[in-house]
Each structure stands twice: as C-alpha cells, then as structure tokens.
Design a protein that fits this description.
By secondary structure, this protein is of the alpha+beta class. The chain folds into 2 domains: 95 residues, Roll (PH-domain like); 78 residues, PH-domain like (Roll), CATH 2.30.29. The protein contains 3 helices and 14 strands. α2 packs across α3. It is globular and about 50 Å long.
Length: 206
C-alpha cells in the first residue's frame, strides 16, 4: 500500500483515500476532521460502514465507504473505489486504505457511539440497534422469520464476516439474523454485545 499522509500534531491517525491525499480524514482524541467538516465523536448519531468487492477473471472492483450522521442531521461520508484489470490498478490499494480507516473508526467513532448505548443499557433502559432490542440481560431479534430472545449468558461471541455482524451462541451457531454493517449503527453491535457477554459471564460468579 502506498504510504499514508504524515500525522499532524495532536492527531492520532490519518486516513487518506489515495496517495498524497490533500484532504484525508484526520482523527483526534475527540473528533474527526475531513474536507472542512468537524465530526465530534459524541455528536455522531448513526454510523454506516461497508466495503464490497467483485472479482472476475480479468476485472476486480472495490468500493467502500464510512458515513456518519450527526445529531444535527449533517452527513459526512468518506469513500474509496478502485478497479484492477489483469492485476493492474488500484482495487487492492483502496481495500487496504478502507481497512485502515475501519480500524481507526472502531477505536474512535464506533467506540464512542457504543459507549452511549452501554450507558443507556446500564441505566436500565432497552436500546434498539439494527432492529434488535437490547438490555443488560438479553437481546431480542429475528432468527429467520421468528422473533427470539437470547440471554447474554447463552452467547459466546460476535464477529464481522463479509460485512455481516454475526452473533453466535455457545454452540457456535448464529443466535439471530446477521445485520449488514450498512445498517444504521449495526457496527456498534460488536463492542456493545462483546461488553454485555463479558458482564453476563462475570455476574454468573457473583
């Protein structure tokens, strides 16, 4: 991958969309700045993030984006796209740039939005994320066409696989249908559910 832009003073990461990007996404401890937009982490209401690829014998394409909607309704979108013909092109490089952006988002914007969900849950409320209702004890969602409620004590892990959030039970099977990360805040299910699984396991021994 072509080398990313230098990190400005005070920044924790820089995520360009191309080589020598003059307007990369710059991440600080409390905000992201991108193309003149300031995105405070505590003001992000919804997150959509997705990378897709199509691979053929001769031609490969890669498209990805991260979209953030603030509490005031403003939308900010970071995106990349690239193609390769007979192995020549920028699809692989764009995919690597997106993966770097994804990792930074998980540690900043997603973590901050998930923390707000967890604060609500710990106060005794039920939150809805990607059509799943979640409280401190269990989550309710669809398993195929049937609605099911699964205690966190029966869950083992939550994983990301090809843009899907897979929530697994202790038999290593999908506990509920897997939402795509292109749904509003579905990506927040990962830190939220991971935290609640750990808390449920700890509380079993109290």
């Amino acid at each position: 991958m072509e080398q990313q832009n230098a990190v400005p003073n005070g920044a924790i990461a820089v995520c360009p969309r191309k080589k020598n990007d003059k307007t990369p996404a710059v991440f600080y401890a409390d905000r992201m700045e991108f193309k003149g937009n300031v995105v405070p982490y505590n003001e992000v209401e919804t997150i959509r993030i997705m990378g897709t690829s199509s691979e053929g014998t001769l031609l490969n394409n890669y498209n990805a984006y991260a979209m953030f909607t603030l509490t005031n309704g403003k939308k900010v979108t970071w995106s990349v796209r690239g193609a390769e013909f007979l192995g020549i092109g920028k699809a692989k490089m764009k995919q690597e740039l997106y993966h770097a952006m994804f990792e930074v988002c998980m540690e900043t914007i997603v973590k901050a939005r998930a923390a707000r969900y967890l604060e609500e849950i710990h106060s005794g409320r039920t939150v809805t994320i990607a059509k799943m209702n979640i409280n401190s004890r269990d989550l309710t969602g669809k398993s195929f066409l049937k609605e099911v409620t699964v205690p966190f004590t029966e869950l083992s892990d939550v994983e990301l696989w090809r843009g899907q959030i897979q929530i697994k039970n202790k038999e290593d099977k999908w506990a509920v249908n897997s939402p795509m990360t292109s749904q509003d805040n579905a990506i927040c299910l990962m830190p939220v559910i991971q935290t609640l699984i750990k808390e449920a396991a700890a509380n079993q021994f109290v």
